[in-house]
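Example 3.2
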Amino acid sequence: MTMRDRPPYRADHVGSLLRPQSLLTLRDKFKAGQASAEELRATEDECIRDAVQMQESLGLQSITDGEFRRESFHGDFIGKLEGVEFKQIFTPGGDGSEQHEAPFVAVISQKMGLPSGGIEVENFRYLNSVTTRTAKQTIPSPTMTHFRGGRDAIDKTAYPDLDDFFTDLARVYREEIAGLAQAGCRYLQIDDTNLAYLCDAQMRADAEARGEDLTQLLHDYATLINESIRERPDDMAVCIHICRGNARSRWFAEGSYDLVAEVIFNEMNVDGFFLEYDDDRSGDFAPLRFVPKDKTIALGLVTTKSGQLEDTDAIKRRIDEASQHIDLDQLCLAPQCGFASVSEGNVLSETEEKAKIAMIVKIAEEVWG
């Protein structure tokens, strides 16, 4: 058994990192009109350089910018797509007067397009310039523009036929990925909560109430992702991270991968999957029996939701349990999610974050050599 020379790596991570307080403070000033865009960008650059040095020093081979230029893993990207507004829908509270916040929904008001120069291309170019290791780019899944709002959130004049919407969405993603590839990106991670939401009984019921055929929707999402990445270079590794919710250490969905495993593992033309397995909400490892031999699974056995360090022997036992359903050589180790899906970050310290990453690297070396 050897360490891997192609992503995902034996010791890998999902991407987002706790933001330094200096960056959070300056972004607040920027939003209040008390700091310039140039000042914010310079501070982001400096913080990203420090984050890169931290990741390299801990032994990671895949290096991200920590998503330091974003306030959320998905909103900053989806909200920049032309024709798409990413907004929070407010609904009446229980007494009929107050309102409570519902999740953000992508509302498509006109034909979609990619802004000139792309969305993350310049950000990736900077990251790639400050590391000698594999720079990894994370982007939200194209499914994030559809699942929560469905047909009702897509303007029927712009897209009278939903197939045209999916075709256009895949085209926009291909354009962004082409820009990233040209900038040197060879490791792309697509962050998808909806594939996990389709494992959750309540969320499935809600989607069916909106009129979704969930069996067909899963195949449609596989096709959407395949169409989005079909022009990537042969040497670009693409992985999907499946998330059940992580903002500020909270979660939103639960349920075994059984309901989606056979379709996503076999129909999605990606190199691997990052799967949450840090608690009982994700079910057991049995769905891994559907993973074909040419795909890799990064087991998210280390939680980012708290700073408490896992027992290394317990993690190794769980890797061994997983290997009863899939070849050990097809497995890697990772946290279940990022450390800061939103800029406020999860409930742990930077010291605890580093300890978690260091432990992942150490266990991977001990398990795979």
